[in-house]
């Protein structure tokens, strides 16, 4: 009987520790990607211009953001550890926002696997640093400081750095908005401007909208 009680206690401890262990694992994956990005960048191929199916791609990205947020950072105690998701995108660069102490690897392709531990460049949009609108999406984790958790603190005039193999691009924020998840107009370009658009969920808990940060190269 005493042995059974010990097993019950041990099981309880493991259940309590699992969410934290899962968070540590996600942070480890993010750091691993960041180190790879800092050591050597993958070759970058120009991204195609936005196509007629951009609405569909954007809808998929915003749905991924909503799904992750609704799940929360703490896994359910009854769930088994999720299998490791194999990353499929090349490392495009590193995004940094000094004001909010953000530094993340950017992977090519806004897929569920890539967005688990990093920011992701929508390959259907313009390439980083090029004419057009380059979109980068990331989850707004409920863990303080993780992924785009603090993106709401960014203000007009702040600088967003995106370092690629070719160059370190310094974008300046010029517009911040909260939009409906279906508002694909946030990906529109403007003449010859080189625009960067950051996308995440809003509000932090039970999000119904998307937080959009627009920046451009001077």
From TrEMBL:
The active site is at 139 (proton donor/acceptor), 201 (acyl-thioester intermediate). NCBIfam families: sortase_fam. Keywords: Hydrolase. It comes from the Bacteria. This is Sortase. GO terms for molecular function: hydrolase activity. The keyword Hydrolase applies. It comes from Paenibacillus graminis. The keyword Hydrolase applies. CDD domains: Sortase_D_2 (cd06166).
């Amino acid at each position: 009987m005493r042995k059974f009680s010990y097993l019950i206690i041990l099981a309880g401890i493991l259940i309590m520790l699992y969410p934290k262990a899962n968070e540590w694992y996600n942070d480890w994956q993010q750091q691993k990607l960041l180190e790879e990005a800092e050591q050597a960048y993958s070759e970058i191929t120009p991204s195609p211009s936005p196509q007629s199916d951009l609405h569909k791609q954007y809808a998929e990205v915003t749905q991924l953001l909503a799904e992750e947020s609704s799940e929360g950072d703490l896994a359910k105690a009854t769930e088994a550890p999720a299998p490791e998701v194999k990353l499929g995108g090349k490392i495009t660069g590193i995004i940094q926002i000094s004001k909010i102490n953000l530094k993340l690897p950017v992977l090519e392709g806004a897929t569920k696997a890539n967005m688990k531990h990093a920011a992701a460049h929508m390959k259907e949009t313009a390439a980083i640093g090029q004419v057009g609108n380059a979109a980068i999406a990331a989850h707004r984790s409920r863990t303080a400081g993780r992924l785009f958790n603090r993106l709401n603190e960014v203000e007009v005039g702040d600088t967003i750095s995106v370092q690629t193999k070719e160059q370190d691009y310094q974008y300046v924020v010029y517009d911040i908005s909260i939009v409906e998840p279906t508002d694909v107009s946030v990906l529109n370009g403007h003449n010859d401007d080189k625009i960067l658009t950051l996308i995440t969920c809003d509000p932090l808990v039970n999000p119904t909208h998307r937080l959009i940060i627009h920046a451009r190269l001077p």
